[in-house]
Amino acid sequence: MNILAIETSCDDTCIAIVSFSKKGYKVLSNIVSSQVELHKKYGGVYPALAKREHEKNLPLVLEKALKKAKNPKIDKVAVTIGPGLDPCLWTGVNFVKTLGYPIIPVNHIEGHLLVNKINKFPAMALIVSGGHTQLILVKGIGKYKILGETRDDAAGECFDKVARILGLGYPGGEKIYKKAKSFKGKTSLSLPRPMINQKNYDFSFSGLKTAVLYSKVKNKAEACKEVQQAIIDVLVKKTIKAMRDYRIDTLILGGGVSANKELRRQFKKQVKELIVPDPKFSTDNAVMIALAAYYKKPKKNIKPDANLRIC
Length: 311
Ligand code: KG4
Ligand code: ZN
Description:
With about 300 residues, this protein is of the alpha/beta class.
């Protein structure tokens, strides 16, 4: 069975074709058309511009994806219905309807989660991206309980905003990681670890960018190292607490920030079993949408919907 999946929730126009068999799956094509260059000057994603670009890119990306996969027979199509930027989601939803196949609606967060091969339940999942920071108890496929989330900025958003303050460009995560790596030794700068000792599983990252803004940064590499460590400290401490509280050994990471090698290294030291995606599947892509769609049935009247089904 072949699924063609479309992902347009943010600033990447993505189409993938994945072939499923009893033995597993094979990615026949995976096209990601990035709009990063366009949004760079705004230091973040500009929704109206992103929508226009998706409309322009979708037919071209579809042609590329079909050609790369050698024009296979398509059985079903899948599309991201949320969470994301509403005008961008509508573009994907309207486009998929023109293709004339049964449509499977997919939640973006579930895509980031199910791009991982999970064979043991319950598991804990931390989905960290530019738009979301969620700690999820995964009881099974389709059975999720959101334990905590960010109350303001997402972890990736914090990387992006701090990178902008430091003049490093957009998107900021990878840039901060590289700059942080170049700083050897202990940092003299001390940034807050928001909500780290609170009993709940929620996060808050907006104060961190303000703290960077008002601290006298003498060395950009040092500031990168400290802000990256502040984000990691909070994510690790709260996730480990949730895993202890729920007696869970397996942790799944997903979302753009999960590409961060330092975050992976520090989690690995603390967790019995760590499941992480191939870095190219950490950031937005349509393979993850096809993989999540595999477990679902086509539906009628598809429209954007941000809710992850909670069981
Ligand atoms: O999952 P994603 O591609 O899009 C959303 O669903 O938001 O995540 C993008 C986010 C951006 O904020 C970007 O700065 C961050 O992921 N990111 C990273 C790294 N690579 C991407 N953050 C930290 N370290 C990285 N290596
Ligand atoms: Zn994402």
